[in-house]
Design a protein that fits this description.
Elements: H1 2-38, E1 40-41, E2 48-49, E3 55-58, E4 61-64, H2 65-76, H3 78-99
Antiparallel strand pairs: 1-2, 3-4
The chain binds zinc ion.
């Protein structure tokens, strides 16, 4: 009688252990999924951003703070850049005219 009860207890313990390991497995899966959701690769530089590196969602892309800073700089100096492009075009035009006088 006592032996039978012990066997039942053993079975229950084993079942409990199996259930616990399944639950642990599920927890790990959920955690991995959660982590992956927080992880984003920067569209510009490809850096994997996870917690330590701020990353911003722009449209359907993720861009890290470093690239955003560079982008901001590029935008701030855009008119300067455009001026220098226009100047270069003008120089090319003048050189062309100098080489091909009409
Ligand atoms: Zn980046």
């Amino acid at each position: 009688m006592k032996k039978g009860a012990e066997q039942e207890q053993d079975k229950a313990d084993k079942r409990k252990a199996v259930l616990e390991s399944i639950v642990e497995g599920r927890k790990m899966e959920a955690y991995a999924e959660h982590r992956t959701k927080e992880m984003h690769a920067c569209w510009f530089c490809g850096t994997i951003c996870y917690r330590k590196k701020p990353v911003k969602n722009i449209g359907s892309r993720w861009v890290c703070i470093d690239c955003l800073k560079e982008l901001k700089e590029a935008l701030e100096t855009l008119s300067q850049w455009e001026e220098s492009i226009a100047m270069q075009k003008e120089i090319v035009r003048q050189v062309d005219e100098g080489l091909n006088p009409q």
